[in-house]
Amino acid sequence: MIKRSRLRPLRTLGHGFIKRIWRLGAGARLFWLTLISSGESFRRFHLTIREVYFTGVMSLIIIVVSAFFVGMVLALQGYNTLQRYGSSEAIGVLVALALVRELGPVVTALLFAGRAGTAITAEIGLMKATEQLSAMEMMAVSPISRVIAPRFWAGVIAMPVLNVLFCMVGILGGYLVAVPLIGVDAGAFWSQMQANVDWRLDILNGVIKSVVFGIACTIIALFEGYDAPPTAEGVSRATTRTVVTSSLVVLGLDFVLTSFMISL
Amino acid sequence: MTQNIVEIDNLSFGYKGRMLHQGINMVFPRGKVVAIMGGSGSGKTTLLRLIGGQIKPTKGEVRVDNQVVHTQTREGIYQLRRKMGMLFQHGALFTDLSVYENVAFPMREHTDFPESMIHDLVLMKLHAVGLRGAHQLMATELSGGMARRVALARAIALDPDIVIYDEPFAGLDPISMGVICDLIRTLNDALGTTSIIVSHDVKETFSIADYIYFVANGTVAAEGTPDDLIKSTLPFVHQFVHGEKDGPVPFHYAAGDYKQDLLGYEV
Amino acid sequence: MERTTIDLWVGIFVALGVAALLGLAMKVGNLTTASIGETYTVSANFENIGGLKPRAPVKSAGVVVGRVADITFDPATFEAVVSLSVDKRYSFPKDTFANIYTAGLLGEQYIGLEAGGDEAALKNGDKISQTQDAVILEKMISQFLFSKASEETKDSAPSKASGSSESTKIDDDALGANPLDAL
């Protein structure tokens, strides 16, 4: 008896580890099933459009407002440091590069996980708990192609769109602080930005990042919902896990993608 | 065309070594209302899932329309399911759709009917359950009894050969219960479908069923027409039909020695 | 909600996204300046390119006329080979002079082309023979210090008595005026 209790932490650790590996495998399987049963969500594209509305359009306000403030703060902080070296015109470059390369994709993905990801998890979890998914199965309609796949593609479409909007609004916020408020020359602000932001290396890479984050965040949210125990507690825990897992995965993927893009 | 649309043959099923069903045999003749009764946790709903092909039996087989369910491919199972309509315990209506869209759902998924035809069919089905006037409501705005009637309209949307009812009376007020009871019988006779009812509500089930199977301890404990069963002297059936607390179905869940459990506690 | 309303909103959403992407490309990125149409490639050898990077601008009279396409190292001559993509619209004489300049004191490095007087123009695959290396700041500073020091020793050579002390003093001055302080 005593021996067993001493071993318990070890067993819990091993158990947790195995469970995580299992979830990784199950998530990958769901991802694969979603990909191969995506035909429906393109043939009946209005199903996907509906979900773009719920994940993308409904996230617009939080994305735009956050982007505006992030851009303004970047400009304020950047100006503070840059003016010591007499290069306050470089503020445009700083704001644009920070947003386009890193903050845009990452912050958008984090906000997306919090706004749309949780909604997806809760919705799918509740559909499962109230037997709606079983009902669909019994009506010979695959829930993967009818419910999961449209949401997946909607997330993959919405994320890059939200990302470019975030970058654009963030740069506008930075402009408003830098030019009218601080008094940096508007011409220098834009021309320095244009000279140093590369279309392919910076903007396109940022968009690629956001597409990858879109895939990751959406499939995590869908998996957590699909895998949630059909109880109130199960769904609420799954929702929390969506945010935690998505955030960690986004930050980890960001590091991997950045190191790839820099070495290229 | 055989006389029985669903046949369960020597079926055994269990999770992780614990057998839920052992050697169950049942037949469901066409056009009849057949009920499966038994206590909570006796695996009645699992039987329905076996018929629907959602799980595979450990041993034996289920045949629907002469086709063995568990050997079918995914596509084959979907083909079989199109012959079935299922009414879930709590309705399982799609909460993001209106009543109209819920009933139209199977038609939109499986047919290419034009919108005008879907419109007429949906209103006909809703009329049959008495809720034509509620077609524009959202599924979340319905009471429990109404939700179940809409779910019934959805289950019969494509005129299935078999309608499966999972606990259709659970948690309803007496009026709704009577309405559902009546609907099951009239729809069965009007559409010529076979109805399979899983329930533990004795009075309602006995009033509409043509034939009843009693499931206990993983086997068919008794079977017969309602009249036979009421007269039955089998101790289990007697306990169930008359709702007695103790009998062949024990009050206590299987446990170790009581004294040992209380005194033998060790850290 | 009505399907048409949803479609409308999603349409607006995607249109906004496309507009933002175009805005990023045109206003923020260098898509407009980078999209030089047809180009021809010429190469130039440099002993030292300093901090020149691929995609750095190639300017003539301050106007961007092309970009650095590629930088390689020639193991035979131990020189850097820089290939330049120059806009087809601009042709340069064969004896054009290529310099590596720095924008401002610490800015990015670019290549400046100074046209010569030759009748024949540079063609695709030609080589610019007259080049000037990048100015390496550290090299310049050390050269400056050495020349200062040697000047002083030469000047003070006749008067041996005070020579050494004076030279050290001037040396100190030179160190005091270390251009690095200005950074």
Q: What is the gist of this entry?
A:
The complex is a heterotrimer of chains A (264), B (267) and C (183). Chain A is built from ten helices and no strands.
Helix-residue proportion of chain B: 25-40%
How many individual domains of chain C? Answer: 3
Number of strands of chain C: 8
| Largest sheet: spatial strand order of chain B | 6-7-8-3-9-10
**Which descriptor suits the 3D outline of chain B?**
globular
- Major pleated sheet of chain B: 6 strands, mixed
**Which fold name fills CATH's third level, the topology of the domain at 30-46 and 83-248 in chain B?**
Rossmann fold
Biggest chain pair interface: A-C, 32 and 25 residues
**Poorly predicted tracts of residues of chain C:** 160-177
CATH homology superfamily name of the domain at 30-46 and 83-248 in chain B = P-loop containing nucleotide triphosphate hydrolases
Low-confidence parts of chain B: none
- The multimeric state of the shown protein is heterotrimer
Q: Give the H and E element order of chain C.
A: HHEEEEEEEEHH
Query: Radius of gyration of chain C, rounded?
Result: 26 Å
**What's the architecture of the domain at 30-46 and 83-248 in chain B in CATH terms?**
3-Layer(aba) Sandwich
Number of helices of chain B: 10
The class by helix and strand makeup of chain B works out as: alpha/beta
Distance between the termini of chain B: 65 Å
| Spatial strand order of the main sheet of chain C | 7-1-4-3-2-6-5-8
Describe the structure.
The complex is a heterotrimer of chains A (264), B (267) and C (183). Chain A has 264 residues and is an all-alpha fold. Chain A contains 10 helices and no strands. The longest helix of chain A is centred in the middle third of the chain and has 40 residues, at 143-182. By secondary structure, chain B is of the alpha/beta class. Chain B starts with a strand and ends with a helix. Chain B has helices spanning 44-51, 74-81, 99-110, 115-128, 144-155, 174-191, 202-208, 226-231, 235-242, 258-263; strands spanning 4-15, 18-29, 33-38, 59-64, 67-68, 84-87, 162-166, 194-199, 211-216, 219-224. Chain C is of the alpha/beta class. Chain C folds into 3 domains: 1-35; 36-135; 138-182, no CATH class. Chain C has 4 helices and 8 strands; from the N terminus they run H-H-E-E-E-E-E-E-E-E-H-H. Classes of the chains: A mainly alpha (264), B alpha/beta (267), C alpha/beta (183).
